[in-house]
Amino acid sequence: MKNENKEKKSLLKNFYPEYTFEKVENIPDELIHKEGIKLILMDMDNTLIDSKGKYSKELRRWIKNIKAKGVKFYIISNSFSESTVKRISKELGVQYLYKASKPSTKAFKKICDKFPDANKCEILMVGDQLFTDIWGANRFGIRTILVKRLNKKEIIISKIKRPFERIILNHYYKKEENIEKCRV
Ligand SMILES: [Mg+2]
Predict the structure, then answer these.
(1) pLDDT by residue (tens digit) across 20-43?
(2) What is the 1 CA–ligand 1 centroid distance (Å)?
(3) 3: CA distance to ligand 1 center in Å?
(4) Which of 6, 104, 140, 150 gives 20 to 30 Å between its CA and that of 111?
């Protein structure tokens, strides 16, 4: 029984983010700097933009500020709508990859191969979903930040996954090192 519990906990770890923040623009640039991050991969839907396809001025400023310090950005989106991903990437001045099929690691590899100077420990994934963004990034072996989703309104497949995410997050926040972290 004890072994079973241990196994369950180690399985849950696959879905644990390294940090959690209320929203992207709350991620301190000192943290990015301190951790030596060279490349930031960003989920789009519900991480950068809300259900109306809008993002905040603060987010735009945040990206601009971090970019000015030499950090590269890349949108990695599961969206099938290239026009939306393209528009957002153009407006925010970052590159993009759509139809990424996260949590598959293929898209992560495809992007990261374009940045041979960045080691995996210098690459950060920011997203709002444990089962796509965080799990995929953990499987690929890069750093992770989970943010709170911007909208409650979601596609059905994401909605179905949320209660399971909650169970994992409850375990995550119970861990001593995560107690102080932002509840998302
Ligand atoms: Mg998302």
Answers:
(1) 999 999 999 999 999 999 999 999
(2) 36
(3) 34
(4) 150
